[in-house]
Automatic annotation (TrEMBL), chain A:
Residues 53-114 form the 4Fe-4S Mo/W bis-MGD-type domain. GO terms for molecular function: 4 iron, 4 sulfur cluster binding; dimethyl sulfoxide reductase activity; electron transfer activity; molybdenum ion binding; molybdopterin cofactor binding. This is Dimethyl sulfoxide reductase. The keyword Glycoprotein does not apply. Its main location: membrane. It holds the Pfam family Molybdopterin. It comes from the Bacteria. The keyword DNA-binding does not apply.
From TrEMBL, chain B:
Residues 4-34, 57-89, 91-120 form the 4Fe-4S ferredoxin-type domain. NCBIfam families: DMSO_dmsB. Pfam families: Fer4_11, Fer4_4. It comes from Endozoicomonas elysicola. Residues 174-207 are annotated as: Disordered. GO terms for biological process: cellular respiration. GO terms for molecular function: 4 iron, 4 sulfur cluster binding; metal ion binding; oxidoreductase activity. This is Dimethyl sulfoxide reductase. Its cofactor is [4Fe-4S] cluster. PROSITE patterns: 4FE4S_FER_1, 4FE4S_FER_2. Keywords: 4Fe-4S, Electron transport, Iron, Iron-sulfur, Metal-binding, Repeat, Transport. Electron transfer subunit of the terminal reductase during anaerobic growth on various sulfoxide and N-oxide compounds. It comes from the Bacteria.
Length: 813, 207
């Protein structure tokens, strides 16, 4: 073992702690021998003898909605291959949680040539990728010095922890939410940092839907396993075959439920996605992106004019459906029924003919599906997060819920509230958090705005929370295990421009495993450990009827000079004079012991820590029946009101009406009290469509989880970065399958190969989001990252990323 | 002699390719070779109505195919050196790389694309049914990897008793050609072998 690796290893955990834990884990300390990870030779036969081979539990801690356990096979301190969970039985609820192609390729991430090896500082311009190796001491001194300097000139509000979801589910090496990271803990000891609210994934959903159902943040639908009780499944932009594709994730549970209860499924989506390929009774109904609310208004017209609305439900549980149940403050004609029948301000009946023109869905289809959805009970209506990632997304999420509300499916088994399907979460515990003294919070999508126009940003212009206005410019950017400095944020070329001015954002610290496009913009770049090199607990996400947690353990010694974040932040705390507050006298091992003790208090059925380390994984089947959202409200709405102002489902939201009048909105911005269809400023009906006639969006792709795994050669080869083009659009432009295309709009230009396929609706093109940005000298992106084409203009209500609302043109390159 | 074979459930397969990538990880197979290939097959037409809306009859489904360890293996017949052989003990077809001269006749002969040329070693390589794992009582890596349990492996008699005998769906050739030890549960959208209404949609992703 080299001295470097030895040093890294010692600082990562401390020798004593490592010996103690690893002896329980199967004696990895005994095989810390000649680790030569980059000399792995390609051999098709497994080695005849595998001396001291051991199997170490780890996990794929990326940001899909699974968190699959991995069993790393290790020989001589080198990972030889990865296998999936082999515990449990084939019984649903005790099943193996089998990792997908991404987790199974983890070895390539650990040993990738892009792996960051030692601390570096930037020597070229931001984004050029020119760095110089420095010592850990120099790196940490520089960071501490910059924090002190910026804090003294601008205060703590100038320090920001960027959105990062590269390592999730863990307790120590956790990058999301930012408030639970070790960096937040460190900054909270040092006076705090500027908060963010919302996420890039779900802002319009979490901001919009609570206006209908109350509360704040995430609104859960029925548990996915509850589909065994349903008679019809209606999905809007739902594709767990690519978004939750691990064997513990939603696709497995969807499959299991539909095999037990083979119900018909209707999928509304611009693409015939992989979820609609499986099972035996699927109908794909293609529609134009961002028009879901128009489709629903058309179906509502059919239901209302044919007496198909469940009026008993409407009358008892909702307000605002018709004029009689509007709040006193609402003007006449403001009800949903008036909007649908054309008796509202726009005087436009939302007939199937009206909806067909907007959505591209034929009139006969809108009529027949409306009847089917209204008369098949119980019916599960659900949405993924694609429909909401648009200019009008906050309204779309509420519109989809209207289908569940009009059909009386809310709060019953086999039904649902129109929200995303949920899962059972077994009780566990996280790293104890400290309070942030800074209360100001910006919408997550507006961090680049906070760099160059903070003085304009107030609560009524930009959704600033915790303060009337933003008091300081963003000067210090922490970025841990995230790729939103560039790749995953809107409008790459604009972001690049903003970050070029080093007098604005003065310091960017990136902590990463690989040289990502965000890492190229770092001023100081720190090499992080992978999950395979450290102890932690990895907690499930959307795991249907069975929760689980994995004790992730060091499969191999820390590589190069990579260090764990807890230990790095402890060294910084020393430099900032807050070491005691940060560590509370504990090292990582002691924190994990405390966290596990807390977890056992929350969940007494957990085994002892020693046993957990030994067995690697704990699974717990959900007790009782599948979760049904708002079941108590449905059973007795007076005793169990919703957390809305009225206690009922608010089809008309008085709160939104108030925001619409009190917020400072631009002429084309909009906040509607009803879940209306609003045409997008960058959609197929907009003026810009004359110049750029095709809608484009980036779907979640099996090749990556966002941008993670985006540099793994075998996965890239097996799942090409190609743009889906309908044969109608391809023929009109003489584009053939396999042709290289030029794709552009006013914001940027890229090159990508055409996949000419009937599986996408005409007028729309799409490709996987998260591909690694790779510009040539003319800023043409040869990596085909969707954010070369997306914008930075936020939505009206959530001030969120409408990253699916884009127009482009294409031609053969 | 036992004869082993694969079962594939096309109604469960989402085309995720975990089977293929797990195989590559286990055997350290280079990027340019796929011992297990996932074909996206599909077709259909679009027609525009007068009001601008669209009608379609699009279909698509996946097949995941490695080597089918055929009763009449075309690769074995085409091999001039005897390197490609059918194992007596389990009926699995494997290549003896020490005898292979890399002429690639086997890959030209196989209608399933199973033999894959190893450009580095200049010999053929292919799925051998993980016979070492099978001998130890395990299933092949791909079968154990499938998140949706769309694959199975075992004595072909048992697989056929359990799952039937269908093996002729597009884009695969008719099973009459080589008598593959393969059983397929067709996706409801599946077309028979020889279908002309669709085509392989991901030709650049399969070797």
């Amino acid at each position: 073992m080299s001295d470097t690796i030895k040093r890294g290893f010692k600082t990562a955990l401390g020798r004593r702690a490592f010996m103690k834990w690893s002896s329980l884990a199967g004696g990895s300390a005994a095989v810390l021998g000649s680790g030569l990870p980059f000399s792995l030779s390609a051999s098709e036969k497994k080695a005849e003898t595998t001396p001291e081979e051991k199997v170490v539990w780890s996990a794929c801690t990326v940001n899909c909605s699974s968190r699959c356990p991995l069993r790393m096979h290790v020989s001589n301190d080198v990972i030889t291959h990865v296998e999936a969970d082999n515990t449990g039985s084939e019984e649903w609820g005790d099943h193996q949680v089998r990792a997908c192609l991404r987790g199974r390729s983890m070895k390539q991430r650990v040993y990738h040539p892009d792996r960051l090896k030692y601390p570096m500082k930037r020597v070229g311009k931001r984004g050029e990728g020119r760095f110089k190796r420095i010592s850990w001491d120099e790196a940490l001194d520089t960071i501490a010095g910059s924090l002190k300097d910026i804090r003294s000139r601008y205060g703590n509000e100038a320090i920001y922890i960027n959105y990062g979801t590269g390592t999730l589910g863990a307790t120590v090496s956790k990058s999301f939410p930012h408030s639970a990271t070790m960096i937040a803990r460190l900054m909270n000891c040092y006076g705090g940092y500027l908060n963010y609210h919302n996420t890039y994934s779900s802002a319009q959903y979490t901001v919009g839907l609570p206006y209908t159902y109350g509360g704040s943040g995430w609104v859960s639908g029925n548990e996915i396993s509850d589909l065994v009780n349903s008679k019809l499944l209606v999905m809007f932009g739902t594709n767990p075959a690519e978004t939750d594709m691990g064997g513990g994730g939603h696709i497995y549970h969807l499959q299991q439920a539909r095999e037990r209860n083979p119900i018909r499924t209707i999928s509304f989506d611009p693409r015939k996605n992989d979820t609609t390929v499986v099972s035996n009774d699927n109908e794909w109904v293609p529609l134009r992106p961002g028009t879901d609310a128009a489709l629903i208004a058309g179906m509502a017209y059919v239901m209302i004019t044919n007496g198909l609305v469940d009026m008993d439900f409407i009358n008892r549980y909702t307000i605002g459906f018709d004029e009689d149940t509007l709040p006193a403050s609402a003007p006449k004609g403001a009800s949903w029924k008036s909007y649908i029948l054309g008796n509202g301000p726009d005087k436009t009946p939302k007939t199937p003919e009206w909806a067909a023109k907007i959505t591209g869905v034929p009139v006969h289809k809108i009529e027949s599906l409306a009847r089917e959805i209204a008369t098949t009970k119980p019916c599960t209506i659900t949405q993924g997060l694609g429909p909401q990632r648009h200019v009008n997304g906050e309204h779309t999420v509420r519109a989809i819920a209207m289908l569940s509300i009009m059909t009386g499916n809310v709060g019953i088994p086999g039904g649902g509230n129109g929200g995303s399907m949920s899962a059972y979460y077994m009780p566990f515990a996280g790293f104890p958090q400290l309070e942030n003294p800074v209360k100001t919070s910006i919408p997550v999508f507006l961090w680049t705005d906070a760099i160059w126009r903070h003085e304009e940003m107030t609560s009524t212009t930009d959704g600033i929370q915790g303060s009337e206005r933003l008091k300081a410019p963003l000067k210090f950017l922490w970025n841990y295990a995230g790729n939103c400095v560039l790749n995953q944020h809107g409008d790459i070329n604009r972001t690049h421009e903003i970050l070029q001015d080093e007098n604005q954002c003065e310091m960017i610290v990136v902590i990463e495993n690989h040289m990502t496009s965000s890492a190229r913009y770092a001023d100081i770049l720190l090499p992080d450990l992978t999950t395979s090199e450290q102890f932690d607990f990895a907690y499930q996400v959307d795991a249907g009827n069975m929760g689980f947690v994995v004790c992730t353990q060091p499969a191999v010694s820390p590589m190069f000079e990579c260090r764990g974040l807890y230990e790095v932040c402890a060294d910084l705390a020393k430099r900032l004079g807050v070491e005691k507050a940060y560590t509370e006298g504990r090292n990582r091992e002691q924190w994990l012991e405390l966290i596990y003790a807390n977890a056992r208090q929350n969940n007494p059925e957990l085994p002892s820590l020693q046993q957990f380390i030994k067995q690697g994984i704990v699974k717990q089947k959900r007790p009782g029946k599948p979760y049904v959202a708002f079941e108590a409200f449905r059973q007795d709405p007076e005793a169990n009101p919703l957390a809305t102002p009225s206690g009922k489902i608010e089809i008309y939201s008085e709160r939104l009406a108030e925001l619409a009048s009190s917020w400072q909105l631009k002429s084309d911005e909009f906040i509607k009290p009803l879940p209306e269809y609003v045409s997008m400023w960058e959609g197929h009906e907009s003026e810009l469509a004359k110049k750029y006639p095709l809608q484009v969006y980036g779907f979640h792709y099996k090749a990556r989880v966002h941008s993670t795994y985006g540099n793994v050669a075998t996965i890239k080869d097996a799942n090409r970065q190609e743009m889906w083009v309908n044969p109608v659009d391809a023929e009109a432009r003489s584009i053939k399958d396999g042709d290289l295309m030029r794709v552009w709009n006013d914001r940027g230009e890229l090159r990508v190969v055409a996949k000419v396929t009937p599986r996408i609706v005409p007028g729309v093109v799409a490709m996987g989001q998260g591909a690694w940005y790779s510009p040539n000298k003319d800023k043409v992106d040869l990596g085909a990252c969707i954010n070369t084409l997306t914008g930075q203009r936020p939505t009206s209500l959530a001030k969120a990323n409408p990253q699916h609302s884009n127009l482009v043109n294409i031609e053969k390159a | 002699m036992a004869q082993y074979g694969f079962y594939f459930d096309s109604s469960r397969c989402t085309g995720c390719k975990t089977c293929s990538l797990a195989c590559k990880d286990f055997y350290d197979i280079s990027v340019d070779r796929d011992w297990r290939r996932i074909y996206e097959y599909g077709g259909g037409d679009w027609e525009q109505n007068k009001d601008g809306t669209w009608e379609h009859n699009v279909f698509s489904y996946y097949t995941s195919i490695s080597c089918n360890h055929c009763d009449s293996p075309a690769c074995v017949k085409a091999c001039p050196t005897g390197a490609m052989h059918k194992r007596e003990q389990d009926g699995l077809v494997a290549v003896d790389q020490d005898r292979c001269i890399g002429c690639q006749y086997c890959s030209m002969a196989c209608p399933y694309g199973a033999p894959q040329y190893d450009a580095e070693k200049k010999v053929m390589s292919k799925c051998h049914g993980c016979y070492e794992r099978v001998a130890e009582g395990s299933k092949p890596v791909c079968v154990d990897a499938c998140p949706l349990r769309a694959l199975d492996f075992g004595p072909i008699d048992e697989l056929r008793a359990k799952y039937g005998s269908e093996a002729s769906i597009a884009p695969l050739p008719d099973a009459g050609m080589t008598s593959p030890n393969l059983v397929i549960k067709p996706n409801v959208q599946a077309k028979p072998s020889g279908d002309k209404s669709g085509s392989v949609q991901n030709s650049r992703e399969v070797k």
